[in-house]
Give the backbone structure.
Amino acid sequence: MPTRIFSILFILIFLSFHAMANDIVYELVPLKPGATPDPGSSYVIQNMPRATSQQALGLCYGHSAATVFNYYQCQAYGLDCPNAPKNQQASAFDMSRYSLEKDSKLLSMSRSDYSEIREGGNPYNALIIGALAIRRVVSQECVTEEMLFKEIYVPTQVMTEAQINAQLAYLQALESYYQQHTVKALACNGCSLSEEELVTFKKVYDTDKNAKQVGKILSLPTFSAFLSAIVMPNKCVRAASNVWFEYSGHYESVQFPKHDKDRNYTAVFGAIKRAISANNPVIVTTCVYRLKGRKNCSDEFKHSLVAYGYGKICKKNGKCRDVLKVMNSWGQEWQDTIGKEWFDAKRILASFDYKKDALLWLQRAGTDQ
């Protein structure tokens, strides 16, 4: 089975061994409960979307992109974003299909060219393709990770290690079935399953698709493409089941830093402040865990989240620290408890060594950065 990137899994496992693993530093630690920025030093974007959960999938990039997408949809339609109807909010699971690496000058304008749900993807591609190129994403009402995990889906809580392991086992069973049957499906050009084969498949994954549709999906060339196609309900292909990005043509994407001279804390935090002050949430690539003494971030520790507030907290001795408010993809319980606090900005930003394009946001076209 191919190696996957499961952000939540690594967090839970490594947290349990944190006291022993002195060479590993957990970076997403909030300040003490109730810590607040000094008067006049902070700004927080209001009316952010409700928190989502990536479950045991490495789709943090899709959730970050969907959070930004949905924030702007709420502004466009005057919605109470935390309580916005699910048929007017983009699905992070579907948003993840747009992570496919493509030359930005040769972006396809056809949704059918983005047919795979890839773990460990790129939030930049997901956002600019979903919002600015294709301009539409299937709604949360039509598809979410719940359609994949069904009864082992965890709606709002912080997931336990046992819950994550159950989902991983489920994914492994689904991929094993695909690997065992895709060769046969390819050999007969996606021929229909027999009714007996369909019954067997439904014991692995209960689907609304018929024997002919499942046979065709099994002939897809990768498990990522199979996963996308088998989870997506038939009704989701309709335009009415999509959320169309209202600001397409009026907004542009910005990445920062672009130059080596800006790869430092002062420049990066300054860019975040400017974007947030203009009511533009910022997708931040960070390193959830870092090995002491090393600047490089292992792929399994890379994570993306959305910064939507900044401030400064100073002690009586005059020592100050910059802080951020962040929206994560670990469920509403995490957001309402840990996520409600402020986070040390330098700790989050320095963990990824201020790499090029670590920040991403949308802004009105023609606006100075």
In short: The chain has a mean pLDDT of 89.
